[in-house]
């Protein structure tokens, strides 16, 4: 039981970062970014390249990967989404699918299809009261908690954080209050890309690095964000933890390859019963 | 040369059907179906399994596949049909992934990763093996013609205008006393029926299906066809689908001429091109190259 | 609070949506430290006028001056920095943020003139709106309409603007709250702020104002001192139910 908890927590923590990233960009830009999975993948591969090809320490490589994807996300916005701000969310959605396909295949082009892993020293798992916790899980726990606390502090207590929440809350009023939307959007993309890349690094640490890794996480990421009510970034974190647990518990009576189906069933049930999310209050939906 | 042409034409027809289905759902109805490949796969598997496991007549199997895919499409769309359209995209995608997983792992029913082989084509007993491809292409083209005519009629009918009006402003349609839900449900189901048909033809054409044949790339190509052809324009999508398949098929030969280019690299390059083109077209030519019939008179149809 | 108010002058404003003019040559002056109220039937272009003053709509023709400075080419956020505060008709707060955060956002991205410590300015503004003082850590979306209006006005006042523009501040308020609101508006004017407001409550709005402007179909039908307009029989017939 305790082991289940630890594994569920790990799954949930990994999901928390991209779910937060997705909800963040949705809250400010009002469109669901399907390319989030490919940001995860690109982050993992850039980190792998810095770690293995350049032989840099793992944590340095992870920072390089995150910064690279943060810049990538900002550039893609400047190249693609910025020209479509006035279009409907659906058109942006389809455009983000195009971005996802292109990015994933750029990765395939350079890295091929075979799975890889990071160059990190292997350590023996530790035992706390009969529960096995391996080094990777500890790294995941510390990294995710660190990142979440940092984001939360920025959100809560800085001018920039207020600006992001203000644009998400009421974009028209934000512009009247002197907030330059374009700059906020750039920051949001940088944050969204950086967090997704970090998640890619952690997934690579937990399992392996392959071109479709982000794709495999797409459905759980969306489910976690919807659990939180899609437009509330911090609730998405809670959604991720709930989903992580649910997936882990489901392995008690379902084969592990059906985790995706668990995510889908949870999402479907939620959309039919509580589309405003597990924690949120009801908001007006068309 | 002739066999090659027939083979390409078969692919074109199947692909065009998928494009037309998406054009109905997304182009005319505003319903983003990212899980298109899943419904296509469902059609192929229902048809293939009915023929191989239960020995049904291929035409009967195809009919059942079409009906079932339509019904399941309707059910899936029900999950998020009350919500804003963004949700349908992820719901359909999730459904498609689940279908693929289910088919890959439930060998007792689907033969799993081994695939379903020996799917006999319609009229297999009537034509000799050497004319089988020709008979197939005639069947496929007839099916495409029927679908095309039906879609043109739908597009020109009051229901077609209602669909476009729902896409452009569901609130207005709702306020005129029309059920947005029913309109969406019907258009998604009709699109599902066409995907079921396309999947069945896929199963007949190859005679063998396995899960690796059905990937999100099918979805990407269908979106490409609709974006190039012009959302809502059936003739545009028809033409775009033809052109696209010939370009994509034609690019296969590049491997023979460009040194150092292997199949995997080419596949990646091709998809990079598809993704990029999709984005570029949405930015610079959002209406595509075809033209949707005008909706100016939509209001007058809504009232009666 | 010793801000010197600035006057607002518009000359020959032609503006609208998508090339279709709603305003057809509107001119007026709100003198420094005065309250100017625009009245007129629904759809006459009042909100369009205030949005043009704010820079949310670009005029096709005409100029807008703040004192001597031509602000016509400035963007909304530049105008905010030039000293114009604005409270829109609807969606006037950030509903998922606390009242204090709403007030902080009033100054976060606007240069304050003269630069004052946040805490000091907050005290001054809360003295004007004592009702919101106990609500500082409440989410703005949970407040009543009247309280939200006060938060919105307080937030617009935080950077000490020269001009405060309010779009139908009394809409949806009870008569008692509306009267309270106009008392506050008069006090704000006395602190050295020019007020440019839109009202559908003609009697209350003009009653508290120095100058009035009647806008009908995008044209100024009548302008003058507020009491003259209130006393005008045609206006009484049009808006005050013949009373
Ligand atoms: N966003 C908009 N787009 C197009 N027309 C608008 C828009 N907002 C208002 N209008 C039109 O402009 C005219 C004036 O509206 P408005 O300025 O809001 O009037 P008021 O505030 O006096 O009621 C109306 O005829 C209205 O239909
Ligand atoms: Mg108005």
TrEMBL record, chain A:
Pfam families: BPD_transp_2. One of its GO terms (cellular component) is plasma membrane. GO terms for biological process: D-alanine transmembrane transport; L-alanine transport; L-isoleucine import across plasma membrane. It is found in: Cell membrane. It is a multi-pass membrane protein. The chain crosses the membrane at residues 6-24, 31-50, 56-80, 92-111, 138-155, 184-205, 217-246, 258-277. One of its GO terms (molecular function) is L-phenylalanine transmembrane transporter activity. The keyword Transmembrane helix applies. It comes from the Bacteria. Keywords: Amino-acid transport, Cell inner membrane, Cell membrane, Membrane, Transmembrane, Transmembrane helix, Transport. Its main location: membrane. Belongs to the binding-protein-dependent transport system permease family. LivHM subfamily. This is Branched-chain amino acid ABC transporter permease.
TrEMBL record, chain B:
InterPro entries: ABC_transp_permease, LivM-like. Keywords: Cell membrane, Membrane, Transmembrane, Transmembrane helix. The chain crosses the membrane at residues 31-52, 59-81, 87-103, 134-154, 188-208, 214-230, 237-255, 267-284. Pfam families: BPD_transp_2. One of its GO terms (cellular component) is plasma membrane. It is a multi-pass membrane protein. GO terms for molecular function: branched-chain amino acid transmembrane transporter activity. It is found in: Cell membrane. The keyword Membrane applies. Its main location: membrane. This is Branched-chain amino acid ABC transporter permease.
Automatic annotation (TrEMBL), chain C:
GO terms for biological process: L-amino acid transport. CDD domains: ABC_TM1139_LivF_branched. SMART domains: AAA (SM00382). Residues 3-242 form the ABC transporter domain. PROSITE patterns: ABC_TRANSPORTER_1 (PS00211), ABC_TRANSPORTER_2 (PS50893). Keywords: Amino-acid transport, ATP-binding, Nucleotide-binding, Transport. The keyword Amino-acid biosynthesis does not apply. GO terms for molecular function: ATP binding; ATP hydrolysis activity; branched-chain amino acid transmembrane transporter activity. Gene3D superfamilies: P-loop containing nucleotide triphosphate hydrolases (3.40.50.300). Pfam families: ABC_tran (PF00005). Belongs to the ABC transporter superfamily. This is ABC transporter ATP-binding protein.
């Amino acid at each position: 039981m305790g082991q289940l908890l630890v594994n569920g927590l790990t799954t949930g923590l990994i999901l928390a970062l991209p779910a937060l990233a997705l909800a963040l960009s949705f809250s400010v830009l009002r469109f669901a970014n399907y390319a989030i999975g490919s940001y995860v993948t690109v982050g993992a591969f850039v980190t792998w390249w810095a770690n293995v090809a350049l032989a840099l320490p793992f944590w340095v490589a992870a920072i390089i990967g995150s910064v690279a994807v943060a810049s990538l996300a900002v550039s893609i916005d400047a190249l693609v989404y910025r020209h479509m701000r006035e279009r409907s969310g659906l058109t942006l959605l389809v455009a983000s699918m195009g971005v996802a396909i292109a990015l994933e295949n750029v990765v395939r082009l350079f890295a091929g299809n075979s799975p890889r892993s990071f160059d990190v020293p292997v350590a023996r798992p530790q035992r706390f009261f009969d529960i096995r916790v391996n080094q990777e899980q500890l790294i995941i726990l510390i990294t995710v908690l660190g990142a979440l606390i940092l984001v939360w502090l920025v959100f809560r207590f800085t001018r920039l954080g207020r600006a992001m929440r203000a644009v998400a809350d009421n974009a028209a009023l934000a512009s009247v209050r002197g907030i330059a939307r374009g700059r906020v959007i750039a920051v949001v993309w940088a944050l969204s890309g950086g967090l997704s890349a970090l998640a890619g690094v952690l997934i690579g640490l937990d399992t392996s690095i392959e071109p479709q890794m982000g794709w495999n996480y797409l459905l759980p990421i969306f489910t976690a964000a919807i659990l939180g009510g899609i437009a509330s970034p911090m609730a998405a974190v809670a959604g991720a933890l709930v989903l992580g647990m649910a997936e882990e518990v489901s392995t008690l009576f379902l084969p592990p390859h059906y985790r995706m189906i668990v995510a889908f069933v949870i999402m479907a049930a939620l959309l039919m019963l509580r589309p405003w999310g597990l924690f949120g209050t009801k908001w007006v939906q068309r | 040369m002739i066999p090659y042409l027939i083979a390409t034409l078969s692919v074109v027809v199947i692909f065009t059907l998928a494009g037309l289905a998406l054009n109905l759902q997304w182009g005319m109805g505003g319903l983003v179906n990212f899980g298109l490949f899943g419904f296509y796969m469902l059609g192929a598997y229902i048809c293939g399994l009915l023929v191989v496991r239960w020995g049904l007549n291929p035409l009967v199997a195809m009919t059942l596949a079409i009906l079932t895919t339509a019904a399941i499409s309707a059910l899936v769309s029900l999950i998020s049909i009350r919500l804003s359209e963004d949700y349908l995209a992820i719901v359909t995608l999730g459904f498609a992934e689940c279908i693929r997983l289910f088919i890959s792992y439930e060998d007792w029913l689907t033969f799993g990763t081994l695939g379903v082989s020996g799917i006999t084509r319609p009229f297999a007993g009537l034509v000799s093996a050497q004319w089988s491809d020709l008979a197939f292409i005639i069947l496929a083209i007839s099916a495409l013609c029927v679908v095309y005519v039906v879609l043109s009629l739908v597009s020109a009918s009051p229901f077609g205008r209602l669909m476009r009006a729902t896409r452009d402003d569901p609130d207005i349609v709702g306020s005129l006393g029309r059920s947005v839900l029913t309109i969406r449900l019907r258009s998604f189901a009709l699109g599902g029926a066409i995907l079921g048909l396309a999947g069945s033809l896929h199963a007949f054409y190859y005679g063998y299906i396995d899960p690796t044949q059905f990937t999100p790339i099918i979805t990407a190509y269908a979106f490409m066809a609709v974006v190039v052809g012009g959302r809502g324009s059936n003739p545009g999508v028809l033409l775009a689908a033809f052109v696209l398949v010939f370009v994509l098929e034609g690019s296969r030969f590049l491997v023979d001429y460009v040194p150092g280019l292997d199949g995997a690299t080419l596949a990646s390059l091709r998809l990079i091109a598809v993704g990029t083109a999709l984005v570029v077209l949405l930015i610079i030519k959002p209406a595509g190259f075809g033209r949707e019939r005008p909706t100016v008179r939509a209001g007058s149809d809504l009232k009666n | 609070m010793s801000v010197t108010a600035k006057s607002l002058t518009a000359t020959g404003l032609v503006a609208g949506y998508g090339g279709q003019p709603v305003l057809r040559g509107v001119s007026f002056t709100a003198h420094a430290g005065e309250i100017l109220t625009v009245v007129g039937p629904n759809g006459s272009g009042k909100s369009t006028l205030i949005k043009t003053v704010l820079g949310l709509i670009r005029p096709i023709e005409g100029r807008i001056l703040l004192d001597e400075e031509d602000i016509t080419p400035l963007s909304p956020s530049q105008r905010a920095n030039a000293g114009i505060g604005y409270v829109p008709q609807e969606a006037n707060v950030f509903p998922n943020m606390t009242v204090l955060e709403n007030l902080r956002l009033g100054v976060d991205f606007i240069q304050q003139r003269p630069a004052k410590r946040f805490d000091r300015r907050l005290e001054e503004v809360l003295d004007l709106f004592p009702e919101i003082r106990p609500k500082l850590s409440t989410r703005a979306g949970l407040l009543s309409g009247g309280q939200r209006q006060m938060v919105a006005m307080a937030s617009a006042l935080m950077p000490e603007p020269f001009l405060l523009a309010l779009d139908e501040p009394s809409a949806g308020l009870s008569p008692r709250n509306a009267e309270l609101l106009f008392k506050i508006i008069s006090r704000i004017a006395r602190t050295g702020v020019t007020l440019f407001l839109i009202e559908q409550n003609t009697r209350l709005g003009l009653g508290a104002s120095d100058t009035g402007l009647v806008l009908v179909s995008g044209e100024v039908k009548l302008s003058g001192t507020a009491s003259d307009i209130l006393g005008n029989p045609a206006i009484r017939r049009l808006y005050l139910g013949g009373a």
